[in-house]
Amino acid sequence: xxxxWLLGGAAVIATAAATAxxxxxxxxxxxxxxxxxxxxxxxxxxxxxVPHINGKTDAxxxxxxxxxxxxxxxxxxxxxxxxxxxxxxxxxxxxGAKVDYVYxxxxxxxxxxxxxxxxxxxxxxxxxxYAAGLNHYAAKHxxxxxxxxxxxxxxxxxxAGFVLRAPFFYGLDNYIGKLTEGEDPPKESAAAMxxxxxDPEMNGSNAWAxxxxxxxxxxxxxxxxxxxxLEGQVAWYEAVMHSGEGLDMAGALFPGxxxxxxxxxxxxxxTNTVNRPDLVDIFKLVLNEAGDKYRYDGKWLPLQAExxxxxxxxxxxxxxxxxxxxxxxxxPVIRNAKGSFAIRYAGIxxxxxxxxxxxxxxxxxxxxxTRSMSIGGITGTNFIYADKTGRIAYVYNALFPDRKPGxxxxxxxxxxxxxxVWKGPVSFERYPKIVAPASGFVQNANNTPYLAAxxxxxxxxAKQSPYLGIELGMTxxxxxxTALMMADRxxxxxxxxxxxxxxxxxxxxxxxxxxxxxxxADVKDVPKLAEAQKLLAGWDWSxxxxxxxxxxxxxxxxxxxxxxxxxxxxxxxxxxxxQVVDEFNERYGRIDPALGDIQRLRRGKVDLPIMGGxxxxxxxxxxxxxxxxxxxxVRHGDSFIMLVRWDKAGKVVSESIQPYGAAxxxxxxxxxxxxxxxxxxxKYKPVHFEWADAQKNAKRRYRP
Length: 704
Prior knowledge:
CATH architecture of the largest domain: 4-Layer Sandwich
CATH superfamily of the largest domain: Aminohydrolase, N-terminal nucleophile (Ntn) domain
Structural class: alpha+beta
Number of strands: 27
Strand content: 15-25%
Distance between the termini: 41 Å
Helix content: 25-40%
Number of helices: 21
Low-confidence stretches: 1-19, 188-197
Number of domains: 2
């Protein structure tokens, strides 16, 4: 979203400036803290600072998780809490105010207030305990709290974080941004079967589940390889949780989550990859001349309007910027020069995600896990599943709108009739899924679900409803991952890990057409471009850093990756080649620098070369190109990685790695960068899953 829609004019800013410093904290509403109680929990930190939390109850464990995570990254947790209260703009300025705008537009707080009592009591107890842990940390460290009256928080604030952030994962913010700016919504410009979803550079993840029949060691394997920003509000945080009530889970979570979101317990595990079904419908309203009513099924209904004030930080001041929000029976409404558009989206008015994630962690078998998945709270993302019995599965999960036949839902829909307005999501039974495939494996790398398990085990497109809006897009990672699995009938653990770390581009992927166009460009009149073309012709189709052309090939791929993801025409080959050649000569004085010399994993005083590519299984998806020395700092791609396996007796063992370390925002901690060398080398550290093992390997034990 652009910034212009927030400013509201110089007059508004000037008028508000005189009282701005006092307005925001005075206007902020403070929530009531959870009921006071004591929590019985112990935290053990291992050699890498990863917290292992053991509570008498699930609520105790959630309390301990909140405190431990705050010790490592309170600054980000505070930002997430500010988002759940519509006050993020007071911390992050205009960019934060955009999030606050969406918070109010979607009616997040109204949804939580209306639906919170529907959340089961045991889940609410965990939510309140997590909130209490945050409150305890904030009270003990008041110097770290940047916004007055932000704490205490309660369980409703935690749920609000899930309600607000869930639609961002399938790209609702893209629709809101375009409509707010008066641009055509994505559905008019995207191919019907390639929904835009999130920004392509913010999507990602690879995942595999492999049955014992396919593994040389006879074990069941699960590889979680998420691609997320390496820092910030959706960067993974690793933890292990235990409780006397059976909450035993190792894996990763985002700031603001009271439990692990992906990983494993003793019995089963799962991981996620971003999918992009069509989960948003846009309706054009017919308004009366006054613009305060809209026609619906032959009647004129009032267009609901609400005035809100967004706190926007400008230097020392926090200035209130007014926005008027509209709603119809369809959902939130955005008015622009082209008309008034209502948005209906997956997860609207839904708070069930917290229960579903919690029940997933407590499941002990496939039946319990699928019962949890049937709750219908997690708006999107593929699930790759494995358990100790050897069962593996792929679930193309989303809260698919239960659309009615007769309308083209890839276009703007008529808003004056209830006929195309769906009431809720389809049932879990209708989700596309592959369970126990004959191939012995399932995989996903953000590609269409129709390539997931190899020939003979794939989903049949003809059996899937077109109204689910399933994408047909393909990634190099999906093609390469499936091909490598199909090529080996008996995969050793070393071979499986090597597949995950593969840095090659397949010549059957979209990259081949892009490279062909670059090599075919007429550049005879520019010797530097001809030299680059010759270098590119000798590229070895890998981003392993061993070839002279790896760096320039990778840069050229990045110029086309976003457009390919969106299904849009790729850029002009000659212009792109000229741009990259000029950039490399300016930055490095040559067009053939080693990939490892320019692609770096950097944090604090640690600066390491890292291999991999934009769309390779070893993923380095996004660069910071504004480094003082002109090099490229990786800031998105492979993030939390976990290797899980169950032996024939059902015993689970796992390893994991993070790009940086457990102390997410504590530069003074030895755990700020202590995993970086292992990460770039493709190595892993043990997960001390059982509490007895955690105690044995603890470097520090304490009670918050």
